[in-house]
Amino acid sequence: xxxxxxxxxxxxxxxxxxxxxxxxxxxxxxxxxxxxxxxxxxxxxxxxxxxxxxxxxxxxxxxxxxxxxxxxxxxxxxxxxxxxxxxxxxxxxxxxxxxxxxxxxxxxxxxxxxxxxxxxxxxxxxxxxxxxxxxxxxxxxxxxxxxxxxxxxxxxxxxxxxxxxxxxxxxxxxxxxxxxxxxxxxxxxxx
Length: 191
Known about the structure:
Elements: E1 8-18, E2 21-27, E3 40-43, E4 46-54, E5 57-62, H1 64-69, E6 80-85, E7 104-114, E8 117-123, E9 137-140, E10 143-151, E11 154-159, H2 161-166, E12 177-182, H3 184-189
Antiparallel strand pairs: 1-2, 1-6, 2-5, 3-4, 3-6, 4-5, 7-8, 7-12, 8-11, 9-10, 9-12, 10-11
């Protein structure tokens, strides 16, 4: 389980495929030393298990079912990714509970700046919009954010400059894909 507070921007060092499994190698600085093989790491919101550590990089295996659920086709070498280690008992929860189980991919419909604010409008499949609650939590590429506005097939979040600078949202533009995990409490309310 994670909190949606990104610890580091990692960089994809290598992507390779063997059979149906994708091997992902991510260069990291901050979290490398305290991470061990078997640990869960949120990589752009996806809970992945560290299978190997080498030369300042964490290595992961990504299964076919995970590849189906995420916007993986757009990933490439040197791309930045959001990284967060799993929570430990006693850690502060500065965001909200994030499980690393992607519900769908969204599309950045619009990114705009207005009066010092940054707005992202994210389109999602209409069947998921009921999981969006006004002032509710949502994880976008693993980042804990608050929903501000809801439309029939999209929602808007406001981003502070710190988040824009320290996460992959700083690189996102209109038409880019993002991984979405709706808040568990919102999903349970809508069952």
